[in-house]
Amino acid sequence: MSYELGPDGRTPNVQEGRRMNIESPGMPYNFADLEPAMSRDTLVFHLLRHQRVCFDRMSAMLRGSELEELSLEDVIRVTERNPAQHTLYRYAAEVWNHNLFWRSMRPRGGGAPGGLVAEHIRTRFGTYERFVREFKEAASSHFGSGWLWLVWRAGGLEIVTTSNAGTPLVRGDTALLGLDLWEHAYYLDHQNRRSAYVSAFLDELVNWEHANRTLAELGSSPEPRVVRPRVAIEAERQIIL
User: Which H or E element spans position 80?
Assistant: First the structure.
């Protein structure tokens, strides 16, 4: 299956099945809107050759099954618990992970946050600069493909990583931001320099407004919490996905 870009630079919202309750993926902005921090070519390649491929394969596996009418979140939760369905889980999780990744960025984003997330960063990490150091440390120390997340867990913020298609959705965490650590997310723009990609995300792309909206929906408010000296990295490498 091939996809043509719409006149506004977006992909058409192709419906893969009338009974499915899962929308086909698309960008919340135009492909060129994140330049120069992230190129149009990277976004086009990433969406069409990765997320859309996962969506198509997931849709084919769901069509005609008892899971067809579930939401994307419920498909992920159900299939993650069943080793026989882990192929479907990987495709569904990658669709969900990418949806959050797109919302974690915005044109003219980046820099230090304000609002609720800024208060929680001060409570958990002490300073924004310390948060940045731990975020970058988590990205650089993660081996292989996967994802880097800022999550809300047990009343506070944590930085965690997951391997391959792993998602915080099935770990009891609420994801505020997601950063793709698969090489295809940054190879065209930064080759193998993951650190440059993470810096561009924090300095020019990160969408703190999305994190603030998610926190507001949770009804969270800063509470005193002991600041731990090291980042909490969730190692899921022992889980065979």
Answer: helix 72-80
